Amino acid sequence: MEFSSKLLENAVNEMSQLPGIGKRTALRLVLHLLRQPDTQTFQLADALSKVRAEIKFCKSCHNISDKDICEICENPKRQTDIICVVEDIRDVMAIENTSSFKGLYHVLGGKISPMDGIGPQDLTIKALVEKVKKGTVKELIFAMSPTMEGDTTNFYIFKQIQGMDVATSTIARGVAAGNELEYTDEITLGRSIVDRVPFEASLKS
Amino acid sequence: MEFSSKLLENAVNEMSQLPGIGKRTALRLVLHLLRQPDTQTFQLADALSKVRAEIKFCKSCHNISDKDICEICENPKRQTDIICVVEDIRDVMAIENTSSFKGLYHVLGGKISPMDGIGPQDLTIKALVEKVKKGTVKELIFAMSPTMEGDTTNFYIFKQIQGMDVATSTIARGVAAGNELEYTDEITLGRSIVDRVPFEASLKS
């Protein structure tokens, strides 16, 4: 792509480093910004620089936070003896949206994935194990995505805390609400039969 | 969407103002930046601010440029008496890529579109008409996209320069290279028969 301006080329190149944004999309976005009042661009640039420079991670759960301890960990109404282990902050947001969990979180910051060069030492697993070692945690809920990497990560943590006095559980896998049975994959469907729940219990939720 | 950090929320909000980028995508992009070395974010922010603050538009053709007159207008090898009228800078880039045009451009900066509140006064049509009035331009090539708005814009300019000593042409419309005849829409196909070219002439290109 030939640009008539170095400034434009530079902006497009930087923009196209973002995942899922190619050169053409980057050019479209930059040209859009050029047509808008300049304050929009400056606010965007400022917000990005600020979040990158000043962002903190909660020292307890590693969730993104403006303070040293995040609002969830700080909240006295939350149960501190049950910890939900998630991959990243988006999962915290998704679970918080359901309003069905009142414990604390532990954000791993990724999942074990040898293909991407991510090992246990790149995640916050050590801090989680230390937390469990203290003995105040009664239950760990593994809430990783049901993929190969998610399962590996769950299993790795499970091995690390073996012998410690903590219960472990994993989020239920089954047919999603609104899905047709005939289009559900066999692993999920099989699992949903093995893990069936008493009908009366299912009426409560 | 509930954020655990105001800084993050702010960055996501600014990012999601870009066209085609919703809140979820914006969050994914910002979280990606947070995982990268901070220089990447700072370079992106800097490049965007710079291009917005310092960008110039060529005083002659209104193409984006780092200088007052762009490289194409400055180039002594280009034919100055033939002007290709395009909607925006991306069209200049697309036509330059074909290497088949050696004249100058005139970038309108949009197309007449009452639906979007864009009238002739929002485009650089007046400057184009002034250019033609000087009498040095022999031919105007209308190279707008073949849409209702593109056609309207072409026709508006055509009316403005009527009576002046300048030839006008429009880019050929027809079946695109590699397209199957049976899937070509009827307007295009009809046009391609009316505007047929001598077979020998078609062998040259």
TrEMBL record, chains A, B:
Zinc finger (C4-type): 58-73
Gene3D superfamilies, per the entry: 3.30.60.80, 3.40.1360.10, 6.10.250.240, RecR Domain 1
Database matches in InterPro entries: DNA_Rcmb_RecR, Rcmb_RecR, Rcmb_RecR_Znf, TOPRIM_dom, TOPRIM_RecR
CDD domains per the UniProt record, alphabetical: TOPRIM_recR (cd01025)
Keywords: DNA damage, DNA recombination, DNA repair, Metal-binding, Zinc, Zinc-finger
Pfam families: RecR_C, RecR_HhH, RecR_ZnF, Toprim_4
Alphabetical list of SUPFAM superfamilies matching this protein: Recombination protein RecR (SSF111304)
Top-rank taxon, per record: Bacteria
Ranges where the Toprim domain occurs: 81-176
SMART domains: TOPRIM (SM00493)
Similarity-based family: Belongs to the RecR family.
Protein's job: May play a role in DNA repair. It seems to be involved in an RecBC-independent recombinational process of DNA repair. It may act with RecF and RecO.
Official protein name in the record: Recombination protein RecR
Organism of this sequence: Winogradskyella alexanderae
Originating gene: recR
